[in-house]
Amino acid sequence: MVDLKEEINNKLRGIADPHMGISIVDMGLIKNITVNEAEKTADITITPTNPGCMSVANIATSAKIEAEKVDGIDKAIVTVEGHMMADAINEMVNK
User: Fold this and answer.
1) Per-residue pLDDT, 1
2) What does the alpha-carbon distance between residue 43 and residue 79 come to, in Å, rounded to a whole number?
3) What is the pTM of this model?
4) DSSP string, 37-78
5) CA dihedral 15, 18, 22, 25 (to 10 degrees)
6) Residues 15, 1: Cα–Cα separation, whole Å
7) Which residues of the chain have pLDDT under 70?
C-alpha cells in the first residue's frame, strides 16, 4: 500500500531553502502533513526559521505544487505558521 504522507514528504525533500541550499524537510520547516485519502487532500504546515523570512511564500507555493504531483492527491492546503504575514501568505498560496 502506498503511504501518501511519505510520498509527499519525499517530494517536499526536493525543495531547498533558497538561502541555505538545504531541503526544507531536513531543516525542519515541515511541521505536519495530514492526508485525507477519501477526499484526496493534503494539509501541510510550514514554520519558517525566521518570522520575517522573505522566501516562505515561494517555499509554501512550491510545497503545494509538489504535493499535488503525488498520485492520489488532488488538492493541497499549505498553512504557514509563525510568520508576521502568515494570513496574507496563506490566502495567496491557497487561493
Assistant:
1) 62
2) 8
3) 0.95
4) TTTTEEEEEE--SSTT-TTHHHHHHHHHHHHTTSTT-SEEEE
5) -40
6) 25
7) 1
